[in-house]
Amino acid sequence: MSARAEARTLVEAIAGPLRLGENVKAALSRVARATGLNDRRVRGIWHNEARSIRSDEMDRLRKAAREARATEQARDEYRAVLTKLAACGTALGLPGPDVDRPADPGLGLGPRGDDRAVDRGS
Predict the structure, then answer these.
(1) Which residues, 6 or more positions from 68, have their beta carbon under 8 angstroms from its beta carbon?
(2) What HEC string does the chain produce?
(3) Cβ(28)–Cβ(39) under 8 Å?
């Protein structure tokens, strides 16, 4: 794989999927912030306009891609733990987060900071 192709692949990996309401330009700006490269350089790499990729740029892209993969892996693990906790709560017959629950701080079922009485308004 050529350096230009690898750099474009790394930019794509760093950007990840587009967020809701985000366009490609905004995603490439995120890549620029993550790598320390300027916006125009990142767009040039994305559009295959870059004639060459310097080693320091490639190092920045690789480092940011590793960090993006680590972040995504941590998010996946977090979601898996939340799913397991929900399954355990269901197996134990604990009420879900949307039902009126008794105040039992030992089970973590007491009032939370974001709970408020109905008569207090919004």
Answers:
(1) 13, 14, 16, 34
(2) CCHHHHHHHHHHHHHCCCCCCCCHHHHHHHHHHHHCCCHHHHHHHHCCCCCCCCHHHHHHHHHHHHHHHHHHHHHHHHHHHHHHHHHHHHHHCCCCCCCCCCCCHHHCCCCCCCCCCHHHCC
(3) yes
Q: For residue 10, give the amino acid letter.
A: L
Tell me what pLDDT residue 18 has. 87
Question: Whole-prediction pTM value?
Answer: 0.67
Give me the chain's average pLDDT, please. Answer: 84
Q: Is the model's pLDDT at 91 over the cut of 80?
A: yes
